[in-house]
UniProtKB/TrEMBL annotation:
Pfam families: Cytochrome_CBB3
Coiled-coil region: none
Residues of the Cytochrome c domain: 34-104
Organism: Lysinibacillus macroides
Entries under Gene3D superfamilies matching the protein: Cytochrome c-like domain
Superkingdom, natural source: Bacteria
Keywords: Electron transport, Heme, Iron, Metal-binding, Transport
Protein's name in the database: Cytochrome c domain-containing protein
This protein's record includes keyword Repressor: no
Keyword Metal-binding listed: yes
GO molecular function: electron transfer activity; heme binding; metal ion binding
């Protein structure tokens, strides 16, 4: 009988851990969706002048086919690159990076 009690305690602990992990993943997904939505607003107001309305490229490169990591995108947004000026996302670099990565 004691073995069954121990078994159910172990199963209960594992279940609680898994439920907590799932809840954290759902919260992370919500956060990412919020960042993507925020990034989309910024990109549509700040990036379309050089990268076209659909971000497929014009004077600037195609942003729909970036081969950069999130960190690299944030760095380009903060520091600029080539003819792109720095600080174009004005503190929203992470959100813009999330949005651009969602287009890939």
């Amino acid at each position: 009988m004691k073995q069954y009690v121990k078994f159910f305690i172990v199963i209960g602990t594992i279940s609680a851990t898994l439920l907590t992990a799932c809840s954290s993943n759902e919260q992370q997904a919500e956060l990412d969706a919020d960042l993507v939505a925020e990034g989309e607003k910024i990109a549509k107001s700040s990036c379309i002048g050089c990268h076209a309305a659909d971000l497929s490229g014009d004077m600037g490169p195609n942003l729909r086919q970036l081969k950069l990591s999130k960190e690299e995108i944030v760095e380009v947004l903060e520091k600029g690159r080539g003819s792109m000026p720095p600080a174009t996302a004005k503190g929203h670099e992470e959100a813009v990076a999330e949005y651009l990565l969602s287009l890939q």
